[in-house]
Amino acid sequence: MFDIAWSELLLIGGVALIVIGPKELPGALRTAGQMVGKVRRMAAEFQGQFNDAMREAELHDLKKQVEDIGTSVQASTNFDPIEPMKDFGTPAAPKPDDAAVKEAEAKLAAIPGPEPLPEVVIDPAPVAAAEVPAKPKRKRKTVATEEPVIPEAEAAPPEPAAKPARKRKPKAAESEDGSPA
Fold it and tell me: Region annotation Disordered: residue ranges (predicted)?
């Protein structure tokens, strides 16, 4: 950019350290960085405005070229529709022969016309009843209060009887003083 070598940068840094001092050097570098940022933003803004101006100039030139082409096309296609209709001495087309026309009309008249179509009668559809059928209600399950009687042939084998209750050992009798006997 400025074509400064590393040795020159070190020399500038050393001089700045001696002149400004180690306490104020970070603040001075921060200020210098802010100023460089402002200069770059201004340069970018100027460049953007310059590019916009160039685009507008190019668009203006392009618009002028399109208008010139449009006027030249319009001038070249200046067409008068009445001019070809004028008779310039060319012979007119021959008129059709009256006898041929009458013969063609006779042939057309001899052709039978189409038969009429049979009449179509559409009966109106029956109107559905206005009532909407109700949904069938669900049947409730009945609770049986008595056991149903099942024939012995279909009856299941009886369940085994429950085990007899276990007999407990009697507790040892306690003596009057509270100790076991």
Answer: 76-97, 126-181
